[in-house]
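PROTOCOL LOG
Step 1. Enter all chains and additional molecules of the complex.
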Amino acid sequence: MPQVTLTVNGKSETVDVEGRTLLVELLREKLGLTGTHVGCDTSQCGACVVHVNGMSVKSCTMLALQTEGAAVTTIEGLAKPDGTLHPMQEMFREHHALQCGFCTPGMVMSAVDLVQSHPEGLTEQQIRHGLEGNLCRCTGYHNIVKAIAAAWPLMHGKAMPEAAE
Amino acid sequence: MGFEGIGAAVRRKEDQRFLSGSGHYTDDINRHGQLYAYIRRSDRPHARIIAIDTKAAGAMPGVAAVYTGADMQADNVGGLPCGWQVKNKDGTPMAEPPHPVLAVGKVRHVGDPFAVVVAESRQAAKDAAEKIAVTWEDLPGTASIADALAPGAALVHDDVPGNLCYDWHIGDPAATDAAFAQAARVVKLDLTNNRLIPNAMEPRAAVGDYDRTTGEHTLYTTSQNPHVIRLLMGAFVLHIPESRLRVVAPDVGGGFGSKIYHYAEEAIVTWAAGKLGKPVKWTAERAESFLSDAHGRDHISSAEMALDAEGNFLALRVKTLANMGAYLSTFAPCIPTYLYATLLAGVYKTPVIYAEVKAVFTNTVPVDAYRGAGRPEATYLLERLADVIAHETGIDRVSLRQRNFIPADAFPYQTPVALQYDSGNYQATLDAALKAADWAGFRARRAAAQTKGKLRGIGISTYIEACGIAPSAVVGSLGARAGLYEVANIRVHPTGSVSVFTGAHSHGQGHETTFAQVVSDQLGVPFEQIEIVHGDTEKIPFGMGTYGSRSLAVGGSAMVKAMDKIIAKGKRIAAHLLEASVDDIEFKNGAFSVAGTDKVKTLAEISLAAYVPHNYPINELEPGLEETAFYDPKNFTFPAGCHVAEIEIDPDTGVITVVNFVAVDDVGRVINPMIVEGQVQGGVAQGIGQALLENAVYDGSAQLVTGSMMDYTMPRADDLPSISVGTETTLCTHNPLGVKGCGEVGAIGSPPAIINAVVDALSDYGVRHIDMPASPQKIWSIVRAGRSRAAA
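Step 2. Run joint prediction.
Step 3. Record the structure below.
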């Protein structure tokens, strides 16, 4: 069986996988990182989003073998080692942006990448458009959009530029 | 207590684990030595099984067993039971055909399971399942109600003539006919309530475990009601006594009704684990969710209202055909009857009503309760009909509704269709919604949109629903095969912290927070010292679970009742310790005091005395401070409100944008306004989904066309607007907290508000009615036809 060596949440891992094993299967079944969820089978729902080398990726759509040498961050690796939540996690809690919690890990990982990749600011419409790859059935997205807008200044350390609001 | 008590927007206790990836869902559970089940499902709508050959599958690497329906029958496994028996007009019971766990003889819908492979890995099970060879004899499949009722239609069940499950009615036909004969005017409307697929984000999953040494079975499952599953599966399917069967529903990723029912897979993994002596796990792929989670809605109705010359509603006559799918799901028969037709008075004082409902078998996935369940169908019918009446009589649509409202001083109000509303103020929610939506300023906004080439419309819906389900004796007399009380066990620990064991189940509703607020408020115990436990039949007394917006109205009432017992016992202990009469002891803010003195004992001191009973009235009282209460509601609760939708149509593309949505709801007392808002927003999102996007489509041969998230339009963030939520409160008069329930109102009130707005926007195009979903294609065709007419 082929082997893959990668870094997951800062820890080096070498794992035997089948050629057909998906990244999400490696994370959930081989490494026991069950915070990353599987909500569909057509790459539509985004419950499985993780970061691979800093970019958000649907881990159901990437083979485990493609992550050779990569640095993967999952929801379990987002908070600080002392348990302090990432500002995005904190804003999700503050704005009641989650209900059943199942889409939440993928939603948070997508949202972190969305905010990081928009240093110029984000409008409500940009946030809504940026969440196109993540489905939530509980919240109607209203509070998720609010949480992401509230996390932007915390992550960039400055107020959201006026033009973006 | 104030800050973290009733009425505070307390941030949720459960969020820490969900946000850090520490949630514990069924598919996260792995047992030592676990095997994996993969289920072969029919890809045919309707076919006779001539032969199933499992030899090649059984010989595949890693396969532990392959089972078919015949194997389960040989092992005396029963069929999946139905929990509600509806009677026909003539008093005879409905048709109730058997529902084998794995199909025997015939498959009846695409997705019907007929074999299962159990293997060492998910992949091995799936690989082997492909090797199962079946010889079929295809039969004609019917998906639509009309096809199933047509003379000579193929029978879904050979012994159910005409595919008719039941022919039921409610109300007074003679009085209704008499009122129609006197009417100044009759307005009719035919409409369809589109079939929906629930799509909770967590696919269903089940893990069966069996302990050979004790003979105990454990089932971990994605359920809204673990005790109901234990009862149904233990008593009817697998014949396992309750004492040998534990059902655990851990964190559950959304339900919306679809996780109420007892499903085949729960029985399969429990049974297979027992046969093989090893844990067996099954997790649905999303394609299986589409083909096996109970669907919702799917009604065809015709309605007519008799009116006097002033627009007063004199009588309502409704005929509805409801699709049951291929088998009766657990609560399917009660949805288009007791949760639908009993709501046809709505918020109006219509004096007489007669409704007839036929339920029909088709070769489709079973249909059961989906968020709102029956009440969205009733609301959609009434609120579309109200708008058509307004249009045809020329009466303003708001005035028409107001004219017919049950007035605020008329409660309790007995409707002509069985329900008695306890409280409400429909004018108050209407006024607040019109104000918040700036209804008065709409004309200017329409004109402004017109200058940009857009068609703008506004729509209203004034609705009521019945929830807090339900008084056991009442539902029993209507055919329910279960009681619908709820249970709470409250354990005050020796040092004063509290554990609450509730029969309600949280799958997104935030019970760990709101229930703790209620307990904190009533017992004066700090919020963080209260733990809410649910979802495990081994820990909690027999409870009925969460659906029908019942958790707080019924489960919360059980908690209050148990706390009353705690306080009553605490007073007797306090009277002993403080050397006073029990009648003089007051309980307030977590402390027992002697009235008019400064003699006080805290709840923690009383609790310690109860568990260390050295100085204790031991001859009169048992030690310990723990009480259980079962609460059976006296009536349904009746949340009501007004939703206003404003939409804009791009006439060139037919695309509809919801530009504003206002919901003002009366959900009774609000425990946590943040959570109530979130529940309403989520419900409204599902309602907008039904109105504009979602539709389960079967083709003529009964093949599901919308079988994936690529085909079935789930609402995404950029499909939806910000959703403004307000509340106006009248208290429920018959439960101790005055609460009504907020889980379903969003999905009930919103669809007609949206469609009324769409029809309003198209008022220049001669549109009387549009069936849901109002897709861009439908709208574009209407606009295009209108433009062609104008050009001609």
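Step 4. Note key features.
Residues 229 and 556 of chain B are 22 Å apart (CA to CA).
The two ends of chain B are 72 Å apart (CA to CA).
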